[in-house]
Amino acid sequence: MLAIAILAAGKGTRMKSNIPKVLHKVGGCTLVERVLSSCEKINPDRKVIIIGHKGEQIKHSLTDHKELEFVIQQPQNGTGHAVQQLVPILKDFEGDLLVLNGDVPLLKTYTIQQLLAKHLESHAEVTCLTARLSEPDGYGRVFSDDQGNIDAIIEEKDCTSEQRKNTLTNSGVYCFNWRKLTQILSDLSNKNAQKEIYLTDAVTKLSIAKHLEIDDPREVSGINNKIQMAQCEAFLQEDLRNFWMNKGVTFIDPASCTISDNCCFGNDVVIEPQTHLRGHCHIGDNCHLGPGSFISNSSIGNNVNVIYSVMNNSVIENDIFIGPYAHLRPDSKINNNCKIGNFVEIKKSNIGQNTNISHLSYIGDSDLGSQVNIGAGTITANYDGREKNKTIIGDHTKTGANSVLIAPIKLGDNVTVGAGSTITEDVPDQALTIARNTQVIKENWSQC
Ligand code: UD1
Ligand code: CA
């Protein structure tokens, strides 16, 4: 039997923030969500999270995790005190307890599996995941013999200057034999520099304490402040970019780009500097993204160029050119072979195949047919002050420069709109429509 406990009750004082620490985000995902996904495939019998400081907020953020049991630690007197709160709910539990720190977000499932395997095989009372760090500042130091038996874990603030030189650190991830742990849990004291009940003292007290040293210490980076948070983000981004570069994606200047865990790329994609992809993004083959673009929760087909543009919740089909300086807002769909050019904003609209919107336009709540040409400066006036109205434009229709289409409105197929028109009435197929003042010329108006 296995239970998992995630420690997430602490305030995170060093973050200097009103947001509870485990709700800060790395790679667009909260720390606690990351810890949960690291153990998603472990399939424990029980999964418990210990909350305290702003616990309701944390609980609210996790409403989708129906499998979670919430335990409240009030006040928060340290990591050992947090685990003491489990005693009532795990009273009859027999088996192992995997403890994860809510502020250690980059841990991999494989590493957890290795820790569990080592724990089972060595019949230890506790097995602790450790890391050898060149800069161990802030971490508890682990003192062990050559056989991997732990003598003690001493928090940095309680170390002598000699002890502080030890670079073997505690990751905050442990597997305990629950029965053995409960026998000593109430003996933990708070006689230490921080006046807290430390879980690390439980490891020191148990007689068969082993450790597993992790290969890549970056995986157990803990987040106590914004500098460590930025380091974690950098590690995560580097891993994601390297993963995709190994699959053939070209990054011209990798360090200047960020992507999310939920992005996927086809063959021969080039990502130019300062390009960022957030949320779920699916990018097809032969796409060229950037420089200077922001793409979130969008799907892009094959042979698409996006330059200096912003795109949210949109679907872009194949053979399309976007930008520079285009803004595609949610629920935009651009079908094959379109061109969306400079300073064009599109919102909640379907743009048919082979349509060009090349310059300075706003297209909102619209449905455009195929082979439409939207002249420079065409605006769909979709909002009448109360509600949003639809514009429908048929196939092969052209709007002249500076047309305003007052919605709700429907232009048929093959319509031509004269430049500078303000169109308020529907226009039938094949028609030319012009709605502007006749030009007046007053000769010899100027005196000189
Ligand atoms: C802890 C370890 C340290 C280890 C480091 C790894 C202890 C005493 N020290 O130190 O050896 O190197 O993690 O990252 O365990 N928490 C509670 N209730 C509390 C206090 C904390 O739930 O009363 C939670 C926090 O929300 C956090 C986790 O426990 O998710 C760790 O607490 P933190 O105060 O960050 O411990 P560290 O000082 O980093
Ligand atoms: Ca910490």
Annotate the secondary structure layout.
Elements: E1 2-8, E2 25-26, E3 29-30, H1 31-38, E4 46-51, H2 55-61, E5 69-72, H3 79-84, E6 96-101, H4 109-122, E7 126-132, E8 141-144, E9 150-154, E10 168-177, H5 178-185, H6 200-205, E11 209-213, H7 226-246, E12 250-251, E13 263-265, E14 270-271, E15 276-278, E16 281-283, E17 288-289, E18 294-296, E19 299-300, E20 304-306, E21 310-312, E22 314-316, E23 320-322, E24 327-328, E25 332-334, E26 339-342, E27 345-347, E28 350-351, E29 356-359, E30 362-364, E31 366-368, E32 373-374, E33 379-381, E34 391-393, E35 398-399, E36 404-406, E37 409-411, E38 416-417, E39 422-423, E40 432-433
Parallel strand pairs: 1-4, 1-6, 4-5, 7-11, 12-14, 13-16, 14-17, 15-18, 16-19, 17-20, 18-21, 19-22, 20-23, 21-24, 22-25, 23-26, 24-27, 25-28, 26-29, 27-30, 28-31, 29-32, 31-34, 32-35, 33-36, 34-37, 35-38, 36-39, 38-40
Antiparallel strand pairs: 2-3, 6-10, 7-10, 8-9
Bound molecules: uridine-diphosphate-N-acetylglucosamine and calcium ion.
Calcium ion (CA) binds next to loops.
Notes on the protein architecture:
With 448 residues, the protein is an alpha/beta fold. It has two domains: 224 residues, Spore Coat Polysaccharide Biosynthesis Protein SpsA, Chain A, CATH 3.90.550.10; 219 residues, 3 Solenoid (UDP N-Acetylglucosamine Acyltransferase, domain 1). The chain contains seven helices and 40 strands. Strands 12-14-17-20-23-26-29-32-35-38-40 form an eleven-stranded parallel beta sheet, covered by helices on one side. Strands 13-16-19-22-25-28-31-34-37 form a nine-stranded parallel beta sheet, with no helix packed on it. Strands 5-4-1-6-10-7-11 form a seven-stranded mixed beta sheet. The site of uridine-diphosphate-N-acetylglucosamine (UD1) has 30 residues, from strand 1, helix 3 and strand 10.
